[in-house]
TrEMBL record:
Keywords: Coiled coil, DNA-binding, Nucleus, Transcription, Transcription regulation
UniProt function note: Putative transcription factor.
Organism: Guillardia theta (strain CCMP2712)
One Pfam entry name: RWP-RK
Protein name per the record: RWP-RK domain-containing protein
InterPro entries: RKD-like, RWP-RK_dom
PROSITE patterns for the chain: RWP_RK
Amino acid sequence: MPLRTVAKKFGMCTTAFKKLCRRYAIAKWPHRQLRGIDKKIAALKAEMNYSSIDKSSA
């Protein structure tokens, strides 16, 4: 979830939320990194499903 969305849910502005994150040693909000990892996992799962379909039909 993007930082702006999370800050809004907590009823804070993004600047205050960033300061709070830094206080708890979160230097950067990891939204993009996590989204990239999720995409890689989805691609690997799709590849596994595709290869298992090929093996069962052969």
